[in-house]
Design goal:
The structure is a homodimer of 253-residue chains.
Chain A (H helix, E strand, L loop, with lengths): L31 H10 L1 E2 L8 E3 L7 E7 L2 E6 L5 E7 L4 E2 L12 E4 L4 E6 H8 L3 H27 L2 H18 L6 E3 L4 H8 L3 H13 L3 E4 L2 E4 L2 H8 L14
Antiparallel strand pairs in A: 1-8, 2-7, 3-6, 3-8, 4-5, 4-7, 9-11, 10-11
Helix pairs in contact in A: 4-7, 5-6
The first copy, chain A, binds a DNA duplex (30 and 30 nucleotides) through helix 6.
Chain lengths: 253, 253
DNA sequence: ACGCCCACTTGACCTAAGTCAAGTGCCCCG
DNA sequence: CGGGGCACTTGACTTAGGTCAAGTGGGCGT
């Protein structure tokens, strides 16, 4: 058993090679020999518990983090002190990409439930990338993907009504869980209504009312944090700009 | 006799080396020898005219583009066909970063006024970056910066009222113009009220009313597309969550 | 096991901003 | 140089969603 000098997680055989997330995460598409090199710079910590920070805003940027299990939220505090949630991160997703530019974290990252993460010291990662073109490419892709997602979020916030925002959010979770081998139709929300609202630019009461409405409409079953998607198709239709107005006779008003 | 003091297009020796934007653009921080190598892969086109496309959504991604003069908007068309503006790009700014991931453009880019751009074939850029660590780093930084800006936009859209959005927008333009050597206090908007509204998630009427209000308040002078910032300090205060109501003894004005 | 707290729900009301509808005048085109 | 369209302004009205307030009940700590 090789003793990793920095942080040793005693007995678990953690390695990118046999990590189930390898196909989603940084190693995606790398030759096995290159994965080994990547492997060599990854630090793994003991599991973090709800409320622990991966990093905090204003602190020096040293590493990217990849979620291995659990979930993490990123957020900033507005001038008035209240929290603006910027994103929720599931296994296989990278955090800290916005800090490369400034060398300082621009948001804080806090785990929402017991989670484990991999730490990727960025200087070493860059060094490695300059020797492994595939890794360089993969990093460019990951950064680009993040930009695309942010752009989608901008579009969602600037033109969609509350209903569509929540439906988008749920579908995004559904798809991401599915890609990770979990159920697309049933999952536990690790974040509060407040946090969902902040993320979607809505009041928590609005989020709550929408959950109720979706349930009444038979689209979801909602039990506290336990969500069951009953009608995926209809949920998708909510997003597709439900311009049913003139379509079907909606009945007498 | 063209009296354009800034740039005359036909006869300039166009080269990153003597481009006034070099310190903002990709070459930033590169050794002169490396700038030459970068130079070698840059394609420069004749000036584009208002309405011309740099690229269109769904088209194959081949190159990044850097604005040299003029301005460019990026946008997508919603399912209902109406335009969602994603950004406005000034000289020295890069476009197409979101397409690296998918190999396909996710938005369209159209010039708002007569503009010139540099085209950077991405494959060659990547190849170059793997030999020039500084360039690789610079690319990571640029992508990261974009992520940070998108994040700022998400925060703006999800929690700021209309007033703050427009003030943010104007201050962003002001700062960007200033860094490019133009006046921070006086500039011409190259985009319509409609486009500003789309970008900020507001109706064009709201944008118009806010311009009027800012003018009435003595913060701006607005003449059609000609904006003069009369009171930069107060414009900043609009953003700073103008909760002047109860705030600590700021003293009566 | 109990009770308290806090996340959530639900209702009533209010407001910021959207929509609809006229203007107004600049700018471009003939 | 004159007409027309289009970008913009302005006003009246509507509404989605925020705010405030009052429950309700699940889960956690003792």
């Amino acid at each position: 058993m090789t003793a990793t000098p920095v942080v040793s997680l005693s007995n678990i055989k953690v390695a990118c090679q046999n990590c189930s997330l390898a196909s989603l995460c940084l190693p995606m598409g790398l030759a096995p020999a290159d994965v080994d090199k990547l492997e060599a710079i990854v630090k793994r910590s003991r599991p973090l518990r709800r409320g622990d920070h991966l990093f905090e805003s204003e602190h020096k940027f040293r590493s990217l983090f990849a979620v291995k299990t659990g979930s993490v939220k990123t957020y900033t505090l507005g001038p008035d002190g209240n929290e603006q949630v910027l994103g929720f991160h599931l296994p296989g997703e990278l955090l800290g990409l916005d800090a490369i530019q400034s060398d300082v974290h621009r948001c804080s990252a806090r785990v929402l439930e017991t989670s484990s993460v991999c730490e990727l010291p960025f200087e070493r990662l860059e060094e490695l990338a300059s020797h492994i073109p595939t890794l360089q490419h993969q990093l460019f892709r990951l950064l680009s993907k993040e930009i695309g997602q942010d752009t989608d979020m901008v579009a969602l916030l600037s033109r969609s009504p509350a209903e569509e925002r929540l439906a988008s959010f749920l579908l995004s979770l559904s798809e991401r869980y599915q890609r990770r081998g979990f159920s697309a139709k049933e999952f536990i929300l690790s974040m509060s209504r407040q946090e969902i609202g902040s993320y979607l630019g809505l009041a928590l009461e609005t989020v709550s009312r929408l959950f109720t409405r979706f349930q009444e409409d038979g689209i979801l079953r909602v039990d506290r944090k336990h969500i069951t998607i009953l009608d995926l198709e209809r949920l998708r239709k909510v997003i597709a700009h439900q311009t049913n107005c003139d379509q079907q006779a909606q009945g007498p008003n």
